[in-house]
């Protein structure tokens, strides 16, 4: 299967607090780069004789395949989550209250996790856990560590490439801007799809 770069789902000129230059750079270089890398890795794997290939080569390619695949998927969730300032609807607020105690408690935890990753790398994910049938905030230090069986519905990219052009080392400011730019209708659609799929 050949993977293609999906069109940018948000209007980069309308995201308050994030420059169009930063969003386009992130989209083209990091997301687009992951898609291109994944296609090259899959091409190499398709031509590999697994019966004779050395283990280090198989391990290396499969590791890079996982990194590129998760980078592609998480970036798609990240960009889908950006839009005009909005609020979650009553159904999603009820789900967040059910699973976190309150919407405010969820938000405080998600923000704190993002700020704790500032200056490092990784992701903060609002994830639907089909196993536990609930929403969870997940800390992912890189593209290889994600919740088994979980489906991210909101992704905050905390790698420096996602904020450095506009914010330099001020990662906490970027987290605040991201929280104000969440496209809640898109998150709600993703949440409903995942909960429906799990039934």
Keyword list:
globular; 7 helices; 3-stranded antiparallel sheet; single chain; mainly alpha; 199 residues
Low-confidence stretches: none
Helix/strand class: mainly alpha
Mean of pLDDT: 92
For the report, how would you describe the main beta sheet? Answer: 3 strands, antiparallel
As a percent range, the share of helical residues equals 40-55%
Radius of gyration: 18 Å
Q: What is the general shape?
A: globular
Number of strands: 3
Question: Main sheet: which strands, in order across?
Answer: 2-1-3
Please work out how many helical segments DSSP would assign.
7
SSE pattern, N- to C-terminal: HHHHEEEHHH
Distance between the termini: 29 Å
Strand residue percentage: 5-15%
What do you see in this structure?
This protein has 199 residues and is mainly α. The protein contains 7 helices and 3 strands, in the order ααααβββααα. The protein has helices at residues 20-46, 55-80, 90-100, 103-117, 164-167, 171-180, 184-198; strands at residues 123-129, 134-140, 150-157. The chain has a 3-stranded antiparallel beta sheet with strand order 2-1-3. Strand 1 and strand 2 form a beta hairpin. The mean pLDDT is 92.
Short description:
It contains seven helices and three strands. It has 199 residues and is mostly helical.
Structural topology:
Elements: H1 20-46, H2 55-80, H3 90-100, H4 103-117, E1 123-129, E2 134-140, E3 150-157, H5 164-167, H6 171-180, H7 184-198
Antiparallel strand pairs: 1-2, 1-3
